[in-house]
Automatic annotation (TrEMBL):
Enzyme Commission numbers on file: 5.6.2.3
Transmembrane intervals: none
Protein family per UniProt: Belongs to the helicase family. DinG subfamily.
InterPro entries membership: ATP-dep_Helicase_C, DEAD/DEAH_box_helicase_dom, DinG/Rad3-like, DnaQ, Helic_SF1/SF2_ATP-bd_DinG/Rad3, Helicase_ATP-bd, P-loop_NTPase, RAD3-like_helicase_DEAD
A molecular-function term among this protein's GO annotations: iron-sulfur cluster binding
Cited SUPFAM superfamilies: P-loop containing nucleoside triphosphate hydrolases, Ribonuclease H-like
Keyword Nucleotide-binding tagged: yes
Protein name: DNA 5'-3' helicase
Length: 898
C-alpha cells in the first residue's frame, strides 16, 4: 500500500467545479501543491475552460466567471501535466471523495494512495465541532491567502496534514490496531498517516470524570450560613469579588429550613442573587448530616457543568472535601462496550457510515472516563443518531452481571456512584422520563432541587409522552429483514434455516405495513405545507389507515414474539445464555414498538395531543402523543413522592404571585406544605438599565410593522455602537430582520450573527463575544440560558412581545382545553406565558452589578391593550415612552453621548 511513498512526500490537491455532480459538472480550476519533508517545494495551478454556465453561487464563492475562463485550456489539454505532477505520490485532499471523483473521471487508471484530511481530522480531534478546511486552518493558525482558490486551498490542505501528523504519534497501540483495520472498509489514509507520523504531538482532549469521590470522614462541623455568606466568612475570603447580599443569605436560610422541616420551597430569585451557592451549602450540609442524597436537576448543560466543575468543588472545600457527587445522564448517553465489541467483530459487513462512526469514536473510547457521547464534537446526533443507536447503552440488550464488560460499564458505574453520592446532578429530561418509568435509573430519593424551574412544564411534556420515529422502527426491524445484518449473522449459527426464513418473512410483513402508513403520513404532512408539526388525529383518512393496520400488525407482532420466545427458551436449555439474552433483548424492543403503535395509532385520548412531524434533513416520519396538561401527572408520579422540594428560577412569578406556575406544574395540590418566596435582585435597575418602549410602531400583525421597525433598528445600532442582540419570536421574523438590516450593518462595519444562518448556537455566541461591534439575531433558545455580562451585551432589542404561537399544536390544544373548562385562555395562558418569556429575555441584559444596558421594546401593544399594565409591571429599569420617531431620535442622541 505504501510502496510508492518517497521521502515523506505527498501532493495536496483541490479542484473548483461548476457543481457537486462528477458526471454532469466540470472542473474549472486545478490546484496542486508538492510537499517534501514538511516543506512546500512546488505548485501547479490552472483555470480550466468549460462551456457550461457557471452558477451564481459558484461565482460568488470562487470569484470565477465564464469570462475568467475564456482563454483557459480545456481539461484534456492539461491532463498530462496533472498526471506528471502527481506521479505516484500519496494524494492529500479535504473531503477527498469529492476531488478524487472528478480526478478519476479524467484519469481513471490512477492508483495513488489517498489521504482525506476531513476524515483524519474527525478521528484525531474528537472534541472539535467544526471541520471545514477554513475552520481547521484557523484552529491550527494556518494562513489561507485566498479561500476557495484551488491552489491556496490545496496548500492549506497540505499544511493541515502536516499539523495532523504529530498528533498521530499520540495514538496508542490498541487504537492503531482498530483504526488500521477500518482502513479497508472506509479508506481515508490512515496507513499513510501511520507511516509518516512525526514525534511530539498531543491529541487535544478534555475528558473529566463525572464523579467526585469525596473522603470517608464524617462531617463534624457546624454550618453557620450567616458566617459563610459574610464578607469575612468563607465565601467572602475565597472570592475577591464577593459582596454581601442579604437576599442570598435569606434564600440559603429558607432552603436550610425547608430541608429540616421536609417542606416545599418555591422561589423566584432575581439575577445576581447567587442562588446556586444559596442552595448548595444547605443541601450538602443536610446530605452529610442525614446520610441522604440530594438530587439537583437543571435544564441546561451549561449550568450542569458550572455546578459540577466550578461551584461544587468550591463548596466541597468548605466541607473538608468530604462530600461526593456524580453527574448522571440517561442510559442512551453512554457507550455500550458490548455493542462496541460486537461492531468491531463484524467490520466486513458494516456500512461505510458504521465504519466511519467507529473511526471517529476509537480514540475517545479508550480515553473517556465517562463514556458520555456528549463529550464529543465530531458526532452530530441529529444526523448520526441512528448510528449511535447501534452503540448506545440500552435496557433491552443489557446482560447485567453476565456482560463481559460489566465492571467497565460506564452507565452502571455512573448509576452505582449516584446511588451513594451526596449530590447527584441530572437534567430535567432524565428527571421526568425516569419518574415516568418508576425511577429505574435514579432509584428512590426524598430531596430534590429543581433549578431553572420555569422549564418544568415544557420539558416534562416532551419527556412523559410517547414517541415513535421511522428511524427507531427501521433500526429494530431491519436487523430481522436484512440477511447480512449483524443480528441475523449472530443468530444464524444457532437457528435452523426455516426459523430464520420465518422470522425474516414476518418482519418483512410488518415493515411493509408500516412503510405504507409512514409513506401516507409523509404525504399528508407535505400536503399540509407546515414548518413543524400537525395534529394527525384530525387527518381522517390517515387515522383510518392507521386503525386498519393495528390488528394485522398485532397479529404479526404476536407471531414474531412467540417464535422468538420459543427460540430463546431452547437456547437457554442449551446453555447458550448470551445468545438467549440477545434474543430476549430483541423481544423487548419489539414489545416496545408494539406498545407505541397501539398507543399512537388509536389517537382518541382527549387529554393528549397527537403530533406528526418529519425530520428536517431526512424527512423521516415521527409520531408523538404528548399530555396537554402535565400538572396532574407530575403531582402523582414525582412531587407526591418527595419530602423536600426546592424550585428556583428568575422567572416563575407574575406580579409577585406564584399561582400560574403552581397550577401549570401541578404544585398547587401541595400548597399547604409549600412556602412561596420572592428574593429580589441586588441590581439597581433604575440606575443600570434604560428601557425605551416605542409607542409609534404599528401592531406586529399590521403589514406596516416591518417597515416601521427596520428604520428603528437601524437607528439604534448606528447611534449606540455597542454589542447588540435582537430577540425575535419566529424564524420568519428573524430572517426578515436579517435581510432588511444586513447591508446597512455591513456598511457600518458591524458583524451580524443570526441563528440558523451563522452556525451553531455555541459558535454564534463565541463569534459574537469576540467581535468588535457585533449584532446577534436570535429566536427561541436565545431567550434564555446565555450569559453575556459587561461589554459582551449592552443593547437588547425586542421587536415583538413573545406570545406562544397559537398555531403550535400543543399550544392550540392547551388553549382549547382551557376554553372547554369555561376559562379565558388568552388571559389565563397566553399572557402569563408571554410575560414569563419576556422576563427571561430581558434577563439576558444585566448580569452583574457593574453592567449597564439599553432595552428597546418595539411592540406598541403594551400601551394599547388591557394586558399592557401587567407587562409594564414586570419590565425593570427606567422607562422611556417614545410616542414618535422624533422622540426616538432625540432619545438616541442623548444616550449616544453617555
Amino acid at each position: 500500500m505504501l510502496k510508492e511513498m518517497k521521502d515523506n512526500e505527498f501532493i495536496a490537491l483541490d479542484f473548483e467545479t461548476t457543481g457537486l455532480d462528477r458526471q454532469n459538472d466540470d472542473i474549472i480550476e486545478v490546484g496542486l501543491a508538492h510537499f517534501r519533508d514538511g516543506l512546500l517545494v512546488e505548485t501547479y495551478s490552472s483555470f480550466v475552460y468549460t462551456e457550461k454556465e457557471i452558477p451564481l453561487n459558484v461565482r460568488n464563492i470562487t470569484g470565477i466567471s465564464n469570462d475568467t475562463l475564456e482563454h483557459a485550456p480545456k481539461i484534456d489539454a492539461i491532463l498530462h501535466e496533472i498526471a506528471e505532477f502527481i506521479g505516484n505520490y500519496p494524494l492529500v485532499a479535504h473531503n477527498a471523495s469529492f476531488d478524487m471523483a472528478f480526478l478519476m473521471k479524467h484519469l481513471p487508471g490512477i492508483k495513488n494512495s489517498v489521504v482525506d484530511t476531513l476524515i483524519l481530522a474527525r478521528i484525531l480531534l474528537p472534541q472539535e465541532h467544526y471541520f471545514s478546511l477554513g475552520k481547521l486552518a484557523d484552529a491550527f493558525g494556518i494562513t489561507n491567502k485566498r479561500a476557495h482558490s484551488a491552489l491556496y486551498d490545496a496548500i492549506a490542505c497540505g499544511e493541515l496534514f502536516l499539523k495532523l501528523l504529530p498528533l498521530a504519534d499520540d495514538i496508542r497501540e490498541e487504537e492503531w490496531d482498530i483504526l488500521l483495520k477500518t482502513e479497508d472498509y472506509n479508506p481515508c489514509g490512515l496507513g499513510v498517516l501511520y507511516k509518516m507520523k512525526t514525534d511530539g504531538g498531543k491529541i487535544p482532549l478534555n475528558l473529566s470524570s463525572y464523579y467526585i469521590s469525596g473522603n470517608s470522614s464524617e462531617w463534624q462541623g457546624k454550618t453557620n450560613l450567616g458566617e459563610i455568606f459574610s464578607k469575612d466568612g468563607y465565601v467572602g475570603k475565597m472570592l475577591r469579588s464577593f459582596e454581601n447580599r442579604n437576599e442570598q443569605l435569606r434564600l440559603a436560610k429558607d432552603i436550610h429550613d425547608a430541608f429540616e422541616r421536609g417542606e416545599f420551597l418555591i422561589t423566584e430569585a432575581g439575577t445576581g442573587t447567587g442562588k446556586t451557592f444559596a442552595y448548595l451549602f444547605p443541601a450538602i450540609d443536610f446530605a452529610l448530616k442525614n446520610n441522604e442524597r440530594v438530587i439537583i436537576s437543571t435544564q441546561t448543560k451549561s449550568l450542569q457543568n458550572q455546578l459540577f466543575y466550578k461551584d461544587l468543588p468550591f463548596v466541597f472545600t468548605y466541607f473538608n472535601g468530604i462530600p461526593s457527587a456524580q453527574i448522571l445522564k440517561g442510559r442512551g448517553n453512554y457507550l455500550c462496550l458490548l455493542k462496541w465489541a460486537d461492531l468491531l467483530d463484524n467490520l466486513p459487513i458494516l456500512s461505510r457510515e458504521e465504519v466511519a462512526i467507529i473511526q471517529k469514536l476509537t480514540i475517545w473510547r479508550f480515553r473517556t472516563k465517562s463514556g458520555d457521547i456528549e463529550e464529543l464534537g465530531n458526532i452530530n446526533l441529529e444526523r448520526e443518531g441512528y448510528l449511535w443507536q447501534k452503540l448506545k447503552c440500552d435496557d433491552f440488550f443489557c446482560l447485567n452481571q453476565n456482560c463481559p464488560f460489566y465492571n467497565e460499564c460506564y452507565f452502571k458505574n455512573a448509576r452505582r456512584n449516584a446511588k451513594s453520592a451526596n449530590i447527584v446532578i441530572i437534567n430535567h429530561s432524565l428527571l421526568f422520563s425516569d419518574a415516568a418509568n418508576g425511577n429505574l435509573i435514579l432509584g428512590e430519593y426524598d430531596r430534590l432541587i429543581i433549578d431553572e424551574a420555569h422549564n418544568i412544564e415544557k420539558t416534562a411534556t416532551r419527556n412523559i409522552g410517547i414517541t415513535l420515529t421511522q428511524k427507531e422502527f427501521d433500526y429494530v426491524f431491519n436487523s430481522f429483514a436484512q440477511k447480512k445484518s449483524i443480528f441475523i449473522k449472530g443468530i444464524s449459527h444457532f437457528l435452523k434455516k426455516n426459523e430464520i426464513k420465518l422470522i425474516s418473512a414476518i418482519s418483512s410483513d410488518i415493515i411493509s405495513r408500516m412503510s405504507y402508513v409512514m409513506s401516507l403520513a409523509k404525504e399528508k404532512y407535505e400536503q399540509m405545507d407546515v414548518f413543524r408539526s400537525v395534529k394527525y388525529n384530525l387527518l381522517e383518512d390517515l387515522v383510518k389507515r392507521m386503525e386498519e393496520s393495528v390488528e394485522p400488525l398485532n397479529t404479526s407482532f404476536n407471531r414474531l414474539l412467540e417464535h422468538l420466545e420459543k427460540i430463546g427458551k431452547r437456547l437457554e436449555n442449551e446453555e447458550e445464555n448470551d445468545m438467549a439474552a440477545t434474543i430476549e433483548g430483541k423481544r423487548r424492543e419489539i414489545e416496545e414498538i408494539q406498545f407505541k403503535i397501539n398507543s399512537l395509532f388509536s389517537p382518541y385520548d382527549e387529554n393528549y395531543c397527537y403530533l406528526l412531524e418529519t425530520e428536517s434533513r431526512t424527512k423521516n416520519v415521527k409520531f408523538s402523543s404528548l399530555p396537554i396538561y402535565v400538572g396532574d401527572i407530575l403531582g402523582e408520579m414525582l412531587f407526591n413522592k418527595i419530602k423536600t422540594l426546592i424550585t428556583t428560577s428568575g422567572t416563575i412569578a407574575i406580579d409577585g404571585d406564584f399561582s400560574y406556575f403552581m397550577n401549570r406544574t401541578g404544585l398547587a395540590r401541595f400548597k399547604e406544605q409549600s412556602l412561596m418566596q420572592l428574593y429580589s435582585s441586588p441590581f439597581d435597575y433604575n440606575a443600570q438599565l434604560k428601557t425605551a418602549i416605542c409607542e409609534f410602531i404599528k401592531d406586529p400583525g399590521d403589514p406596516q410593522f416591518y417597515n416601521d421597525t427596520t428604520p428603528v433598528i437601524k437607528a439604534i445600532i448606528q447611534a449606540i455602537p455597542k454589542k447588540t442582540m435582537i430577540l425575535t419570536t419566529s424564524y420568519t421574523m428573524l430572517n426578515t430582520i436579517y435581510n432588511n438590516i444586513l447591508p446597512f450593518s455591513e456598511e457600518l462595519g458591524i458583524q451580524v450573527f443570526a441563528q440558523g444562518i451563522s452556525g451553531s448556537r455555541t459558535k454564534i455566541i463565541e463569534n459574537f463575544k469576540s467581535s468588535h461591534q457585533g449584532l446577534l439575531i436570535g429566536t427561541d433558545t436565545f431567550w434564555e440560558g446565555i450569559d453575556l455580562p459587561g461589554k459582551f451585551l449592552e443593547v437588547l432589542i425586542i421587536p415583538k412581545l413573545p406570545f406562544p404561537a397559537p398555531n403550535d399544536p400543543i399550544i392550540e390544544s392547551r388553549i382549547n382545553k382551557i376554553r372547554e373548562n369555561g376559562n379565558n385562555p388568552f388571559d389565563q395562558y397566553m399572557v402569563p406565558e408571554m410575560i414569563l418569556k419576556l422576563k427571561q429575555g430581558i434577563g439576558r441584559l444585566i448580569r452583574t452589578t457593574y453592567d449597564n444596558g439599553y432595552l428597546f421594546i418595539l411592540d406598541s401593544r403594551i400601551y394599547r391593550r388591557n394586558y399592557g399594565k401587567r407587562v409594564l409591571d414586570e419590565i425593570p429599569g427606567k422607562e422611556y415612552r417614545l410616542s414618535s420617531y422624533y422622540l426616538l431620535s432625540q432619545y438616541l442622541r442623548e444616550v449616544s453621548n453617555e
